Amino acid sequence: MVNDAKPALPHPLPGAIGLSHLSTYDWEAADGVCGGSPHLHLVCTEAYVVTGGRGAVQTLSPDGYRDIPLEAGSLAWFTPGTVHRMVQGGDLRITVLMQNSGLPEAGDAVFTFPPEVLADPERYAAAAALPPGTGPETAAAAQRRRDLAVEGYLALREALVAGDNGPYLEFQRAAARIVRDKVPTWRALWRAGALATAERTGAQLDALAGGEPAYLGEATAYEAAPTRLGGFGMCGRRDEYNLPGTTLPHQSE
Description:
This protein has helices at 115-118, 121-128, 136-161, 166-179, 183-209, 249-252; strands at 18-24, 39-40, 46-61, 64-71, 75-78, 83-98, 110-111, 228-232, 236-240. By secondary structure, the chain is an alpha+beta fold. It has one domain (14-210): Sandwich (Jelly Rolls), CATH 2.60.120.10. 36% of the residues are buried.
């Protein structure tokens, strides 16, 4: 007998990752490059799986400045603290995999706004916020936000290329100050998501070692579809999913 019932989603995706699809912004920035809003994540590694088109991801890290080419089939990922900027080369489309589902949407990302904006929490919050919806007003606000992030990013990049990592390190410190008050919320999301998933695996290994795999009786399958198409994310237009352990992106932006 086939059971067509759709079960609830008590478990996150494998490894407690977050997932979205991106189509890179084609707005031209001050340096003549089309792309997204440079930013970093404080505790999450992010991966790009390129599904179509071409472009690049520009990164700033202790390694210096890098321009990593992207094309269909490419895979690139970057660890916490790495400033990244997705750049359009032609119909670039990406599936984004995020560590610690729920944390990026709960604020684990800081834009590379100029230092005077980063120094004022209220000014930063106002510059980072977007109006609700996906209409022209939201698009205009997203472009202004991108342009402000690019302004700060270009200064960081220029200094780093010249051998001065001071502004980059100060940006990391400023980013940490901005998110400090969010850490208790992040810790709760991590415990309920990524940590619980890892601990579940440990319990399953214990059960197998003991010859009592009763947990296999809970085997099932899940499905999900995007809950919003074409939202305005940091890097581009974004198709989003409401998945277990994840705060909906359009509730936090």
